[in-house]
Design a protein that fits this description.
Layout: H1 8-16, E1 22-27, H2 32-37, E2 43-49, H3 55-69, E3 76-80, H4 87-98, E4 102-106, E5 122-124, H5 127-133, E6 136-139, H6 155-162, H7 166-170, E7 177-179, H8 192-195, H9 202-226
Parallel strand pairs: 1-2, 3-4, 3-6, 4-5, 6-7
Helix pairs in contact: 3-4, 3-9
Length: 227
Amino acid sequence: SVKKGETLIDTANNILSMKVDLIVMRHPNVGACDFLSKHVNARIVNAGDGTHEHPTQALLDSYSIREKLGEVTGKKIVIVGDILHSRVALSNIYALKLQGAEVKVCGPKTLIPKYIESLGVQVEYNIKKALEWCDVANVLRVQNERMAINYFPSTREYSQLFGINKKLLDSIDKNIVIMHPGPINRGVEITSDVADAEQSIILNQVENGVAIRMAVIYLLAQQIQHK
């Protein structure tokens, strides 16, 4: 409807006329959910706004770490890949720092935001050093659909410099936890033997996502009932 010329507020109000209490919204524009929350009488769940945030992914990632390692506080988490275009990265940084984790990011210099260190996050450009440091590696895909220009020479070069494979993991003198928010580009940021390895909790993340989002809806529904 928006593409046909209808405003976002009109679209939402048409939906709300059907007595909807809660809207789950994914939108390409940064801040769209926050904007809508100021103009409609409903609870808004941000399911991803552009390259900004994805709060429920951060919640399920935090829960998955807690489930695997017992707690998030004091754990060392490295987020690897396209930090610049990732809404998952920013929400994870906020959530993990809030819970007392140490956070690093690793990727090509062109895909690391200039402001990132102001969030209390360290930057590492060497993937092996990043993996040797961390307890958990959260691997992100390259967001090709959000790129107007080329940020690195080739997919092959990216994979060689920042891709995680079994040989690289075996060279690390500890067993780190591997995460990925999906969808996976197998053979680019992560190889199949790593994605399917015992130390990978990628499918646990998917399973936990259902429970976390049920919890978010449940808690917001309670607020609506108590109004």
